[in-house]
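User: Hello, can you help with two protein structures?

Assistant: Certainly.
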Amino acid sequence: MPIYAYKCSACGHAQDVLQKMSDPVLTVCPECGASAYEKQVTAAGFQLKGSGWYVTDFRNGGGNASAAAPAAAPAAPAAGSTSST
């Protein structure tokens, strides 16, 4: 069940409420009783962490993406080096 953020525009009371998506929107503030309780727009409640499934499953024809990275890494510093003599 999602968690929705509500805030009363009359008294400023804010609260997170665990509700079903089919539950009616709350309109009465539990703190002051005014009918100025509104649902707030908030960010999504999940984060995508790690290297990602697409990197290991689909990139390079299903091969291991970390095996290709070390081969490319040593070439980068050599190309950018300059001699200062």
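That covers the first. Now for the second protein you mentioned:
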Amino acid sequence: MSETLDATFAALADPTRRAILTMLLEDDMAVTDVADPFEMSLAAISKHLAILTRAGLISQEKRGRVKWCKLEPDALRGASVWMQGFGQFEPVNLDAFERFLEGELGSDTAT
């Protein structure tokens, strides 16, 4: 469980990876479409996607010649349960988490 939590929190620690998760809330996306809004190479985005995949937050599959990314929303369940163990946190509401991410990313893009 500890390795899974470490991977989840490490993946969520990076703003680019949080932005990718927010994008994938809408629908599955091709890797090239995920990379499009970022000012970094496709190789750099692929590294971020690999970290998200290892953490179980997304899955990737090849459809024809295109690699697609899909959000795995249940992957946050372990982190949510762990945080609830402290008694200071409410169960993770994924809709509220989405609004939080949009707020965070919206304020980053405005500066």
